[in-house]
Amino acid sequence: MTKKNMMKVRENNNNLLLLVMLCTLFSSGFEAHALSYDYSATIECLANPHKPQYGGGIIVNPELNHGLKGWSTFGKAKIQHRESGGNKFLVAHSRSQPYASISQKLYLRKNMLYTFSAWIQVSEGVAVVSAIFKTRSGFKHAGANVAEAKCWSMLKGGLTVDTSGPAELYFESKNASVEIWVDSLSLQPFTQEEWSSHQQQSINKVRKTNVRIQALDKQGNPLQNATISIEQKSPSFPFGCAMNKNILNNPAYQNWFTSRFKVTTFENEMKWYITEPSPGQEDYSVPDAMINFAKQHNIAVRAHNIFWDDPKYQPGWLNSLSPTDLWKAVNKRITSIMSKYKGQVIAWDVVNENLHWNFFESKLGTKFSGVIYSKAHALDGATTLFMNDYNTIEERGDKQSEPAKYLEKLREIQKYPGIANAKMAIGLEGHFNTPNLPYMRSSIDTLAAAGLPIWLTEVDVQSSPSQANYLEQVLREAHSHPKVNGIVIWSAWSAGGCYKMCLTDNNFKNLPTGDVVDKLLKEWGSKAAATASMTDANGFFNASLFHGDYQVKMITDDHQATRDFTLAQNFKVASNNVASSQETLILNV
Q1: How many whole angstroms separate alpha carbon 483 and alpha carbon 487?
Q2: Is the dihedral of CA 282, 285, 290, 294 positive or negative?
Q3: DSSP-derived pairing of the beta strands 101-108 and 72-74
Q4: How far is the C-alpha of 476 from the C-alpha of 572, rounded, in Å?
Q5: Per UniProt, what is one GO molecular function of this protein (predicted)?
Q6: CATH number of the CATH domain containing 174
Q7: Where are the alpha helices (DSSP H) in 357-466?
Q8: What is the pLDDT at residue 220?
Q9: Could you give the number of structural domains in the chain?
């Protein structure tokens, strides 16, 4: 045992040693043999496409090395096998309909989860190209990307089908005048068990670390049957819930909420139409009280929002302002709220839902978002600035907010002067109906290629008999994705009902959705009982722990040692109470 692989807790008075060693994770036998999921995606337009993921999966002739084998026309188009610089690909030309393209017939199975990818190009300009599967029960949108001329773009997506049966893959672009070029295709099916194994593999890799604890006496001899107790005090992964002003005077709501969550977003209380309903009459008394409540309970706050681009949710008095006066009001608003809460929040939703709406752009110009993010960075350069929108991971085929459009808007903002060094992040609201997990995962893969933090910011599921089950699916998928950095559920409580999904009844007894949350909190450590066991003949005790703040206790017949420590991944030791997979730590109790 070397100093490079252990953390040591020493009880000074009694000379007992507690050694905590960070060990390599070992997967279960099933995980070791299941086909791993490929989380990679490319958002650059490249001179040549990459090889198809999974060797093409069930696609016939995925690299197009065998001419037109497996491929045919779809709609009124002609197809051609071409080669350029040694790269072979298919071209759909002479297209007279948006859906006229190449196609391949397949057989898809219900209860399988399919991940899809292809590399696409168009003959001139730029055009959105979608991958569609025609099935017995309808057309399934698998994904889309913006294709360019003279370079290859990766389209990554996914789908499930309602019934087993024949299906036909084809590509679609509203611009019927361009040729669609396709190469390096892949369609890989996974069983439900394999999909779950991917989640567990990812959790083991990015959310947990195995620790080995050894108890020694003052001579350095192992202590058999010493009791080791480990309790998580706070998780490192932010998992929270929205709250509203009802919490301020409702002890039952307070107790239910504070016993579960350490991060929140105010449902409406920071929005402009709430804080300034009449021009010049600002009232921050309610969000002030909520901020103070959050501080008292060590709850981090995401600031939501500075501006909302939806015309339905504006202070009514804005509509009569001239562009000059509207700019004055906008500048006053952003300066007021950011100056007030700077240093008290962990994030800002700056221009909310600016993919779907354009209230401010329509009145103040198309560069409004860039101007505002630049100003926000100048006012609070230390805090993360989020884009925040819906249907990027929830619904297939929302042309306004699919991953390619999200990234296009993000790049537009990042190119604006003054943004270069801003701490930007990706906010995905997550208002689900029926989750499509392959599409959700692949969409996050694509967004993650931008290299920015990703949060699910407003998670809920439409009411249905499957609501709780669907919520669990979404939360597990998000929590296990290696590039997701936090989750907030959109279930602030009101006596008259929640936005879409409540977690409790009006007596703060859990509904099935609340039971799901508690189940996952316990599983992920924050509501779990302390893990306790006896050391073996060599003084060892092993545990696999989620990253977070812990208290470890060692108890023998006549001695006890207690110490707090933080278990993290890929962080160097910053103080003498942080343990990571890279550093050795000696703790003196």
Answers
A1: 12
A2: positive
A3: antiparallel
A4: 28
A5: endo-1,4-beta-xylanase activity
A6: 2.60.120.260
A7: 359-364, 368-379, 403-414, 437-448
A8: 81
A9: 3
* Mean pLDDT, the chain, whole residue set: 91
Rg (CA), the chain: 27
pLDDT for the residue 222: 87
Do 269 and 416 lie in one domain? The reply is: yes
Spatial CA neighbour of 56 closest among 69, 47, 46:
69
**Around Cβ 38, how many Cβ atoms within 10 Å?**
16
What is the domain range of residue 255? 242-503
What are the beta bridge partners of residue 532?
Answer: 229
Residues 425 and 284 in one domain: yes
Say if residues 172 and 140 touch (Cβ distance below 8 Å): no
Q: What is the pLDDT of residues 40-55, one digit of tens each?
A: 999 999 999 999 999 9
Strand runs labelled E in 332-376: 347-352
Phi, psi angle pair for 512, to nearest 5°: -55, -35
Q: Number of helices (H) and strands (E), helices first, in the chain?
A: 12, 29
CA angle 583, 588, 589 (to 5 degrees): 130
Distances 582 to 4, 19, 23, 424, 483 between C-alpha atoms, Å: 8, 16, 11, 27, 20
- For the question of whether the overall pTM of this predicted structure is more than 0.85, the answer is yes
Please write the tens of the pLDDT for every residue from 132-163: 999 999 999 999 999 999 999 999 999 999 99
| Nearest alpha-carbon partner for 402 in 393, 411, 413, 414 | 393
Q: Give the 3-state secondary structure of residue 418.
A: coil
In this structure, are residues 475 and 520 in contact, taking their beta carbons and an 8 Å threshold?
yes
Q: Are 128 and 253 in the same domain?
A: no
Q: Are residues 247 and 228 in the same domain?
A: no
Dist. CA 332–CA 173, nearest whole Å: 43
Q: For residue range 464-510, what is the model confidence (pLDDT) as tens digits?
A: 999 999 999 999 999 999 999 999 999 999 999 999 999 999 999 99
477 shares its domain with 381: yes
Q: Kindly report, residue by residue over 313-355, the tens digit of the pLDDT.
A: 999 999 999 999 999 999 999 999 999 999 999 999 999 999 9
At 380-397, the pLDDT tens digits run 999 999 999 999 999 888
Judged against a pLDDT cut of 80, whether residue 571 lies above it is answered with no
Beta-strand relationship, 431-432 and 384-389? unpaired
305 preceded by a cis bond (ω within 30 of 0): yes
Quick count: other Cβ atoms within 10 Å of Cβ 441? 25
Q: Which of 157, 190, 223 is the last residue of a domain?
A: 190
Looking at residue 25, what is its pLDDT?
Answer: 38
Assess whether pLDDT exceeds 60 at residue 7: no
Adjacent-strand bridge partners of 147: 127
More confident site: 28 or 445: 445
Q: Is residue 220, in this structure, part of any structural domain at all?
A: yes
Determine phi and psi for 551, rounding to 5 degrees. Answer: -120, 130
Residue 256 and residue 384 in one domain: yes
Catalytic residues: 353, 458
Domain-embedded: residue 435: yes
Sign of the Cα pseudo-torsion (190, 194, 196, 199, in order) = negative
Domain membership flag for residue 13: no
Helix ranges (DSSP H) in 16-78: 29-33
Q: Are residues 263 and 155 in the same domain?
A: no
Averaged pLDDT for residues 413-417: 97
